[in-house]
Every structure is written in structure tokens, then in C-alpha cells.
Amino acid sequence: MNVQLHDTRALTADGANRAARITVARGDGIGPEIMKASLRVLQAAGARLDIEEVELGEKVYLAGHSAGIEPGSWDSLRRTRVFYKAPITTPQGGGFKSLNVTVRKTLGLYANVRPCASYAPAIATRHPGMDVVIVRENEEDLYAGIEHRQTDDVYQCLKLISRPGCEKIVRYAFDYARAHGRKKVTCFTKDNIMKLTDGLFHKVFDEVAAEYPDIANEHWIVDIGAAKLADSPEAFDVVVMPNLYGDILSDVAAQITGSVGLGASANIGEHVAMFEAIHGSAPRHAGMDTANPSGLLLAGVMMMVHVGQPEVAERVHNAWLRTVEEGLHTKDIFREGASRERLGTQAFADAVIARLGQMPQVLRPVSYVGNPPVPARAPSPRKPTEKVLVGVDVFVHSTQGVDALAAKMQGAANGRYELSMITNRGVKVWPGGLPETFCTDHWRCRFLAKGGAQFNKPMVLELLGRVHHAGVDFIKTEHLYSFDGVPGYSLGQGQ
Ligand code: NAD
């Protein structure tokens, strides 16, 4: 594949002494405390940062901005291209849009990267050998949020998967593995059921994997893959998956490391990147100096690698490992007998600062200096195909039995079109349905041109006119296309 390469690091810091411009939001709840602690550690480690601050979250929501961000903040994000974000509180009640989804989609942050490592014996976990990185597609899948109620009974959410979307995320996973010296990339999908959407993700995974012979690859069906990940996470290295599975399994993976409070994530796009802890604003802990700043600090470590200051990232991460292995713990990870001292948020930051330049003795040290950058790439140019209309699925709202519906639809077809099947929730119920199949009021009637002739758009319009005159309540259509001779639609279940 021919790809264009953008190195976003070069956009943010291109010289050893040049400060990286970043946008900082201190957030809500425990956000301001953990951001203060994290920035203190980064700056003590020699981070060269030129900081712009923006207000974001609860106050902004309540001031009438439905996505929790002021219009002017976008200018800062587009200027600095790097966003260090503390957690925010989403106010209760309707009408508030998810700030994270808005920022990710508006700025094209397609890759969500979550390292999930356990820190045994310093932090108790059932999985001491775990060191997994979840790479989640961040922009598409069911998260397009395109939903409709279509009948009394049935609601729909559209799952959109694109070839460029798959290619960008899969390639990012392999580039990440290569840059971080990782050995294997695993793909999770449910393509035994969703043969076109998840099937595309799997197909693109196989194509891209072939370009990285130095990295092992494998595919798991997501259900058994998830079970294996929860049970034996040490069997995985980098795992890439579509948005919904990634959303769920990255939380599972973070939880089984021993503490969600330590989780960090990066959201990477071609132009902008955002770094944050995976936990929320924990409002009940706000202002008490008890919150653990580690998730945000480790997100800061990922940010320092991204802006081309890997030596700072390495100093901070190794000092943090040293602090944690010495049993200096915040309340959430403190265990009587196992921990040495319980520290507040700022005292924990001081302990990390005091260990800058030291290496962990028990936990494995990290190294970032010398790693190649992970490029954010544009997808391959689109390949035009020969797209031929071969039929149409007409969806209808009906409470009549299937035989009565079939009779009306055959009447509408008027010998010109062939009614090839009727399904209910995907299962074929005509011809030859079983009385045991439960049917809702939402039916799909598949029409093909008689004798394998081609369909065209005027035929679709004419057919819909006939269906309407037959008194059938059609609610939507889906065109059936073949692309270079390959059907671009699934068969009915049982067909
Ligand atoms: P949460 O992650 O804020 O807190 C859940 C619990 O986890 C807390 O009660 C606390 O016991 C513990 N916890 C979390 N982070 C901790 C830390 N750093 N140190 C110590 N303990 C910690 O989840 P929630 O209570 O469901 O959500 C609170 C608010 O955060 C909500 O308004 C939610 O919308 C928001 N939220 C924001 C983000 C984000 O900004 N990225 C993410 C998730 C939730």
C-alpha cells in the first residue's frame, strides 16, 4: 500500500531545546490537583513545555456550551496540536454531549492507545506478567451515533466501518508495536457474524500485517478473545480492535492490572493528539489531596514521547516505578502490610520528583530514547470499483402476518421484480419460514430484477410507488450493490 506519512512530533518539537507547545485543561473534581502534581513532576524532570490553558467541563457545560468546550478552545488545540487533559465532570441530565467524543471526532483522533501493565509485586494483581497495549479505533463503528426508531417495536443504530478507518488504526497498531519493540499484534473482531463490517476490519488487518513480517499477528473472535484476555492477559502484546469492543475491553484490561487509577491513554490523530487518565473526575475525592495522580502522570509520559522529549518521559516513568516499588502509595493502592507509606497527591508527586534519575530495582525499567516515532499516516488512496445496482431491500412496518405481507409485496412487484425473501430481524421468514420464529413489526423485503437483469434508480422509485399504493408502510430502503462483481450485502440468516 502506498501511504503518505505525517510525523506529528515534528510539528510540535523539532529541536533539542525547543519547548513543545501544549494545551492544558485542569478539568473538574480531582482534575486540578492531579494536573498540578503531574505538571510539577514533568517540569522537575526537565520537560520543555510552553503551556496554554483552556477552561473545559462542568462550568462550560453549565454556561450553555452543550459539548463542555468553549468555541475559542478549538483555536488553542489547533495551534498547539497537543492536549493534556484532566478528567471533567459531565453534568447529570439530558442535553449534554460527551466532551471526549466531540474532541476525538472533531479533531480526527482516530487511535486510542492504552498501555495496561501490572506492577507486581508493588501493586497486587492476579496477573503479574501482564503488559498489554490496547489500540482502539476511536471514530467509527456504532459510535457514529446514527440511531432511528423505525417502528413501534424496533430501534436501529448504524454500525459504520470504513476501509480508511480500518487501515489507519491497524497500521498505527503495527507501527506502535515496531516503535516500542513489541513482538505481536492481535486483532479482535466478530466477523463470523458481521461478515461485511467486522469482516473488512479483519481483511485489512491481514493485508497490513503482511507488510510487517518482523511482527507476529493473529486474529481472535472477540468473545473468546475477551475471555482469554481477562483470564491470561500475558498471552497478548498489542491488541487492535474496532471502537465498541475496544471501549469495553480496554477498561477490562486496565482493571485487571490491579488499579484503574493508574491507567493512561493517548488519543492520536494526523494533526492533534490528546493525553489523559482513563478514570473520571471522582468528585467525592475532590480537594482532599488523596487522589492518585499516576494515570495523568503516565499520560504525561506518553505525551513527552510524542512531543520528542523521550529522555524526560524515561526519567519520569522510571522514577515513578521506583516510587511505587518502594511502597510509597496513595490511598487507592495502599495495602496494609504491603505498602510502606500512605501519601497524599502532592506528597506522592514529591516522592517521584525525589527519585528522578533513579531506576527501579524490582520492576522492569522502561526506555524510550532511541525508539522511532510512531507515524500518524494518511490512508491509501481510494481504489474506484465497478458498482452495479442489483436489487433493493424495502423495510416495512407491518403487524399483518408474513403471508399477507408477501401477497401484497408480490402484487406490488407486478411480475417485474422478484420478491426473493422476507426477513424479520435478519432471519428469513418467507418463503418457508417456521411458525416458531418470533416476529416483530419490522420486516425486510428483498427485491431483485427478474431474470438477473440490472436494477436502476427509476425502478426503485417505481417499485416504492407500487408498494405505497398497495397500502404497505415502507420505512426505509437499502440498495443492493455488487462491487467488482462481489455482493456488497449479506444474505438473510437461514437463506
Ligand atoms: P471516576 O473514575 O471519576 O471515579 C470512580 C471511583 O474511582 C471514584 O469514586 C474513586 O473511588 C476511584 N478513582 C478514580 N480515579 C481515582 C484517582 N485518580 N485516585 C483515587 N481514586 C480514584 O468515575 P465516575 O464516578 O463514574 O465519574 C465521575 C465523573 O467523571 C462523571 O461526571 C463522569 O462523566 C466523568 N468522567 C470523565 C472522564 C474524562 O474526563 N475522561 C472519564 C470518565 C468519567
Automatic annotation (TrEMBL):
Keywords: Glyoxylate bypass, Magnesium, Manganese, Metal-binding, NADP, Oxidoreductase, Tricarboxylic acid cycle. It is an enzyme of class 1 (oxidoreductase). SMART domains: Iso_dh. It comes from the Bacteria. The keyword Lipid metabolism does not apply. Pfam families: Iso_dh (PF00180), Isocitrate_DH_C_bact (PF18324). This is Isocitrate dehydrogenase [NADP].
